[in-house]
Design brief:
Layout (H helix, E strand, L loop, with lengths): L1 H7 L5 E3 L20 E6 L23 E4 L3 E4 L7 E4 L2 H18 L5 H10 L18 H5 L26
Parallel strand pairs: 1-2, 2-3
Antiparallel strand pairs: 4-5
């Protein structure tokens, strides 16, 4: 509920979808909120990480929105100062996506949080054929930066049909 409320106030919320895969319906709250960017994990070759949670949500909405590198990410190590290692998890793919979103929004400060979310989804690698494993695909910051306009967004339009009506309550 907090993630959804933050999104309603104009905050762009990115959340790890979880490490409960590979079964369907393994995502947890708040990754199931309808107005946030839930992030799955992929390997360096672009295949879905075996631990990345999957949708759909309990009410049938597709999740995640996008994916990013979450397997064998090169990271600073907590074992000693100045050391590095590798880590895996959607906790690594989500900050990469949040950083990409920040870059996109910085380049287009007139866009709303929902417009940034929509642009990230529509420019991702599988935008033409989204599913409950990859969502709309691997986020493509370069493509999102170069969209000349943001898709229109109607606040409260959960099913993205351009209107707010009773069908939005079931999506």
């Amino acid at each position: 509920l907090g993630a959804l409320q933050a999104a309603r106030y104009g905050i762009l919320v990115c959340n790890s979808i979880g490490n409960g895969g590979p079964a369907a319906k393994t995502l947890g709250a708040p990754a199931d909120a309808d107005s946030i960017i839930s992030v799955g994990a992929v390997t360096s070759s672009g295949t879905l990480s075996n631990f990345s949670s999957k949708g759909p949500t309990a009410d049938g909405r597709m999740k995640p929105e996008v994916c990013a590198l979450g397997s064998a990410d090169y990271v600073a190590s907590s074992s000693s100062d100045g050391s590095y290692g590798y880590g895996s998890g959607t906790s690594f793919s989500c900050p990469l996506t949040a950083g990409a979103a920040a870059v996109i929004w910085s380049a287009h400060p007139d866009w709303t949080n929902m417009q940034v979310r929509q642009v990230m989804m529509t420019t991702a690698s599988r935008a033409s054929n989204p599913d409950n494993s990859y969502g709309w695909g691997i986020a493509n910051t370069w493509a999102a930066l170069h969209v000349s306009f943001a898709p229109s967004y109607v606040h409260g339009d959960a099913n993205h049909d351009g209107t707010v009506d009773v069908s939005d309550a079931v999506h």
